[in-house]
Amino acid sequence: MTELRRELPRRAWRRIGRVTGAVTAISVALSVIFTNLIMEMFSAGINVQGLVVSIVMPIALGGPMTFVLVLKHEQLRHANNRLEHLATTDWLTACLNRGAFTRAVTDHLGRRKSATESGALLIVDADDFKSVNDRFGHHHGDEALKLIAAAIRHAVRSSDLVSRLGGEEFGVFLADADAATADHVAERIRGAVAAIAFLPDGQTCALSVSIGGATYAMRAEFGHLYRLADRHLYEAKNTGRDRVAMMQAA
């Protein structure tokens, strides 16, 4: 039971309790009604012994059976949720993985309510990250990536999507954001990463990111936005790094 408590979240146990209690109560009520109907056919109705039996039997037999069935259902639900999480989440940073991010953005662009709805795609790339791995090892490089991912998530809005696209590259999708908002969020991300106190082996190691972005105010496709944002990421890299380069896509 201790392992089960650790495996299932608290809300799952609350559901198990509610469903088991409700089904058991209904079973008891139906048992009393049917027992009374049967007893009325042969006598004056249900007596004390019959009432006790009609209440105890559903609780003693139906309660445990219902608990086990609902428990197995919740375990299956929890296992499926974990599999879905693993299939859509980057193992290191807990951001969306590339596939899940691409699908989510593509779906959003495909179901936009208005042809004039605006938004933006940002590509965030850690500057000179190879030197971090070379100087301090991949273990500290992984720690730096987790810090960068946390800084990005903290800097964006709750409705924005954050993904690790691969290596030291991250994607951010800003729904319902105009060019000014997108630029503001991108600068906030850049500043949040620059403010990270990264001290591998006690040594100070500055972190920074370059950000390329593409905003849209009309119909847009993920592939087109990605190519534009990637082009401007290289522009940000080539003009000094630790900066933002944005472009209106359409």
Question: How do the helices and strands line up, and which of them pair or pack?
Answer:
Layout lengths: L1 H6 L2 H33 L5 H41 L9 H13 L8 E8 L2 H8 L1 H18 L5 E6 L2 E7 L3 H16 L14 E8 L5 H17 L5 E5 L2
Helix pairs in contact: 2-3, 5-6, 6-7
Multimeric status of the protein: single chain
Unreliable runs: none
Write down the secondary-structure element order.
Answer: HHHHEHHEEHEHE
Helical proportion, percent range = 55-70%
Distance between the termini: 58 Å
By helix and strand content, what is the structural category? alpha+beta
Tell me the fraction of residues in β-strands, as a range: 5-15%
Number of domains: 2
- Helix count equals 8
Global shape? elongated
The CATH architecture designation of the largest domain is 2-Layer Sandwich
Described by strand count, sense and barrel closure, the largest sheet is:
5 strands, mixed
Number of strand segments: 5
Per CATH, the superfamily of the largest domain is Reverse transcriptase/Diguanylate cyclase domain
Physical arrangement of strands within the biggest beta sheet: 2-3-1-4-5
Describe this entry's structure for a reader.
The chain has helices at 2-7, 10-42, 48-88, 98-110, 129-136, 138-155, 179-194, 222-238, and strands at residues 119-126, 161-166, 169-175, 209-216, 244-248. By secondary structure, it is α+β, with helices and mostly antiparallel strands. It folds into 2 domains: 2-87, no CATH class; 98-248, Reverse transcriptase/Diguanylate cyclase domain (Alpha-Beta Plaits, 2-Layer Sandwich), CATH 3.30.70. The protein has a 5-stranded mixed sheet with strand order 2-3-1-4-5, sandwiched between helices. A hairpin with a 2-residue loop joins strand 2 and strand 3. The protein is elongated, with a radius of gyration of 29 Å. The mean pLDDT is 86.
